[in-house]
Write a structure and sequence with these properties.
160 residues; mainly alpha; two-stranded antiparallel ribbon; 2 strands
């Protein structure tokens, strides 16, 4: 009847969320932020990103401490479509988050002789930044599928 959140799902969720809220790896460099448009919270230089970070860390703690946090009723209809799409994007985002964390040594392995300008690090950072958005989209789809499943479950419970 219910979707149980496995450990791999919980770990992928946490990695993707941390990659979204913590500025790490090449995707967080200044030139990459200028290329991709930077933070959506650029209007409020410190308050927006700090709140985003605190909310993300709080959610990570809740997901890791309480095993049933990511459980939900069985998703059907549109929610049933969103769930696997969201899970796929979430796992992809977790992989990109890990690659971003290891991006400097991996880039040095691929380009043993860096150029004078460091353009290879810039290009890798841009691609990691762009691909990291897939994980964030996965989080949104996954959470939306959970919300819709809970709403459907509540409607059905009221009818019975």
């Amino acid at each position: 009847m219910h979707h149980r959140a496995s450990w791999p799902l919980r770990i992928a969720y946490v990695i993707t969320l941390l990659a979204a809220v913590l500025p790490i790896g090449l995707a967080s460099s200044g030139w990459v932020a200028m290329t991709t448009g930077g933070s959506p919270f650029a209007i409020v230089p410190y308050i927006g990103p700090l709140l985003f970070l605190l909310l993300g860390v709080y959610r990570v703690v809740v997901v890791l401490r309480l095993p049933g946090t990511l459980d939900s009723p069985r998703a059907t209809g549109f929610a049933g479509f969103l769930r696997p799409v969201g899970l796929s994007a979430l796992y992809f985002g977790a992989v990109i988050g890990l690659v971003n964390l290891l991006s400097r040594p991996l880039t040095r392995l691929i380009f043993p002789r860096p150029s004078d300008t460091g353009v290879e690090f810039y290009v890798v950072g841009v691609y990691l930044s762009l691909l990291g958005g897939v994980g964030l989209l996965g989080l949104v789809f996954f959470e939306l599928s959970r919300l819709l499943a809970f709403e459907s479950y509540a409607r059905n419970a009221r009818r019975s």
